[in-house]
Amino acid sequence: MDLPQEVRIYIWRCYLSVAPTQVAHQRTWAMVVLPSLPWLELSTTPPNLVKCENPPWDLYVQVRHLPALILSQVNREARWTVLDRLTPIRVSDTIRKFSEGTPMFIWIDRYSDVIHFSGEKFHPDLFDKAGRSACPHLYRSLCGAEKLSQL
Questions:
Q1: How many structural domains are present in the chain?
Q2: What 3-state DSSP class applies to 123?
Q3: pTM for the model
Protein backbone atom coordinates (compact mmCIF):
# COMPACT_ATOMS: atom_id res chain seq x y z
CA MET A 1 0.00 0.00 0.00
CA ASP A 2 1.39 3.42 -0.99
CA LEU A 3 1.40 6.12 1.64
CA PRO A 4 0.99 9.79 0.79
CA GLN A 5 4.24 11.73 0.56
CA GLU A 6 3.44 13.79 3.69
CA VAL A 7 3.06 10.59 5.75
CA ARG A 8 6.28 9.08 4.39
CA ILE A 9 8.26 12.24 5.18
CA TYR A 10 6.73 12.32 8.66
CA ILE A 11 7.89 8.72 9.21
CA TRP A 12 11.43 9.56 8.02
CA ARG A 13 11.56 12.56 10.36
CA CYS A 14 10.29 10.52 13.30
CA TYR A 15 12.94 7.87 12.74
CA LEU A 16 15.63 10.50 12.39
CA SER A 17 14.54 12.65 15.32
CA VAL A 18 14.50 9.91 17.96
CA ALA A 19 18.27 9.65 18.26
CA PRO A 20 19.53 13.23 17.85
CA THR A 21 17.07 14.89 20.22
CA GLN A 22 18.10 12.63 23.09
CA VAL A 23 21.64 14.01 23.14
CA ALA A 24 21.37 17.32 21.29
CA HIS A 25 21.66 19.46 24.42
CA GLN A 26 24.99 17.78 25.20
CA ARG A 27 26.36 17.87 21.67
CA THR A 28 29.13 20.41 21.26
CA TRP A 29 31.45 20.47 18.26
CA ALA A 30 34.49 22.53 17.39
CA MET A 31 34.99 23.07 13.68
CA VAL A 32 37.80 24.62 11.73
CA VAL A 33 36.72 26.83 8.84
CA LEU A 34 39.06 26.21 5.91
CA PRO A 35 39.57 28.39 2.80
CA SER A 36 39.18 25.39 0.45
CA LEU A 37 38.04 21.76 0.43
CA PRO A 38 36.72 20.29 2.74
CA TRP A 39 35.58 23.80 3.91
CA LEU A 40 34.61 22.67 7.43
CA GLU A 41 36.42 20.03 9.46
CA LEU A 42 35.72 18.63 12.89
CA SER A 43 38.41 19.63 15.35
CA THR A 44 38.83 18.93 19.05
CA THR A 45 36.32 20.48 21.40
CA PRO A 46 37.91 23.49 23.10
CA PRO A 47 37.82 22.70 26.85
CA ASN A 48 37.83 26.35 27.83
CA LEU A 49 34.58 26.99 25.92
CA VAL A 50 32.45 24.04 27.00
CA LYS A 51 31.63 22.45 30.32
CA CYS A 52 30.18 19.21 28.97
CA GLU A 53 32.36 16.86 26.97
CA ASN A 54 31.04 14.99 23.97
CA PRO A 55 29.61 11.59 24.75
CA PRO A 56 31.93 8.71 23.76
CA TRP A 57 32.26 8.04 20.04
CA ASP A 58 30.52 4.67 20.31
CA LEU A 59 27.43 6.36 21.79
CA TYR A 60 27.48 8.99 19.05
CA VAL A 61 27.82 6.34 16.36
CA GLN A 62 24.87 4.37 17.76
CA VAL A 63 22.46 7.21 18.43
CA ARG A 64 23.00 9.56 15.50
CA HIS A 65 25.51 8.38 12.93
CA LEU A 66 24.04 4.95 12.18
CA PRO A 67 20.37 5.99 11.98
CA ALA A 68 21.23 8.94 9.70
CA LEU A 69 23.52 6.82 7.54
CA ILE A 70 20.92 4.07 7.16
CA LEU A 71 18.09 6.48 6.42
CA SER A 72 20.21 8.34 3.87
CA GLN A 73 20.51 5.12 1.86
CA VAL A 74 16.82 4.10 1.80
CA ASN A 75 15.73 6.28 -1.12
CA ARG A 76 15.96 9.82 -2.45
CA GLU A 77 13.08 11.09 -0.33
CA ALA A 78 14.59 9.71 2.89
CA ARG A 79 18.02 11.06 1.94
CA TRP A 80 16.51 14.52 1.38
CA THR A 81 14.90 14.33 4.84
CA VAL A 82 18.29 13.56 6.43
CA LEU A 83 20.15 16.26 4.53
CA ASP A 84 17.41 18.78 5.30
CA ARG A 85 18.34 18.51 8.99
CA LEU A 86 21.87 17.11 9.22
CA THR A 87 25.12 17.86 7.43
CA PRO A 88 28.02 15.42 7.13
CA ILE A 89 31.26 17.13 8.21
CA ARG A 90 34.66 15.51 7.70
CA VAL A 91 36.56 14.47 10.81
CA SER A 92 40.15 15.70 10.93
CA ASP A 93 42.96 13.19 10.45
CA THR A 94 44.28 14.05 13.91
CA ILE A 95 41.08 12.99 15.65
CA ARG A 96 40.79 9.79 13.63
CA LYS A 97 44.42 8.98 14.40
CA PHE A 98 43.92 9.21 18.16
CA SER A 99 40.31 7.99 18.48
CA GLU A 100 39.53 4.45 17.41
CA GLY A 101 36.13 3.90 15.85
CA THR A 102 35.71 7.51 14.75
CA PRO A 103 33.75 7.69 11.47
CA MET A 104 35.15 9.51 8.42
CA PHE A 105 32.47 12.17 8.82
CA ILE A 106 29.96 13.13 11.48
CA TRP A 107 26.37 14.29 11.20
CA ILE A 108 26.00 17.84 12.51
CA ASP A 109 22.52 19.01 13.43
CA ARG A 110 22.89 22.64 12.46
CA TYR A 111 19.62 23.54 14.22
CA SER A 112 20.34 22.22 17.70
CA ASP A 113 24.05 21.38 18.10
CA VAL A 114 26.40 23.85 19.73
CA ILE A 115 29.16 24.66 17.28
CA HIS A 116 32.34 26.64 17.84
CA PHE A 117 34.06 27.88 14.68
CA SER A 118 37.71 28.76 14.23
CA GLY A 119 39.85 29.62 11.24
CA GLU A 120 38.54 31.61 8.27
CA LYS A 121 35.29 33.55 8.51
CA PHE A 122 32.24 31.28 8.68
CA HIS A 123 29.32 31.80 6.32
CA PRO A 124 26.18 29.61 6.13
CA ASP A 125 26.75 28.19 2.65
CA LEU A 126 29.85 26.41 4.03
CA PHE A 127 27.54 23.77 5.53
CA ASP A 128 26.36 22.80 2.06
CA LYS A 129 29.88 22.93 0.58
CA ALA A 130 31.33 20.90 3.46
CA GLY A 131 28.57 18.30 3.23
CA ARG A 132 29.09 17.86 -0.50
CA SER A 133 32.82 17.59 0.09
CA ALA A 134 32.59 15.11 2.98
CA CYS A 135 30.09 12.78 1.37
CA PRO A 136 29.45 13.65 -2.30
CA HIS A 137 27.50 10.50 -3.17
CA LEU A 138 24.69 11.50 -0.79
CA TYR A 139 24.16 14.74 -2.70
CA ARG A 140 24.11 13.35 -6.24
CA SER A 141 20.37 12.87 -6.40
CA LEU A 142 19.54 15.78 -4.13
CA CYS A 143 18.90 18.17 -7.01
CA GLY A 144 15.91 16.08 -8.08
CA ALA A 145 14.53 16.03 -4.54
CA GLU A 146 14.94 19.80 -4.23
CA LYS A 147 12.93 20.25 -7.43
CA LEU A 148 10.20 17.93 -6.12
CA SER A 149 9.95 19.82 -2.82
CA GLN A 150 9.42 23.11 -4.66
CA LEU A 151 6.36 21.82 -6.52
A1: 1
A2: coil
A3: 0.75
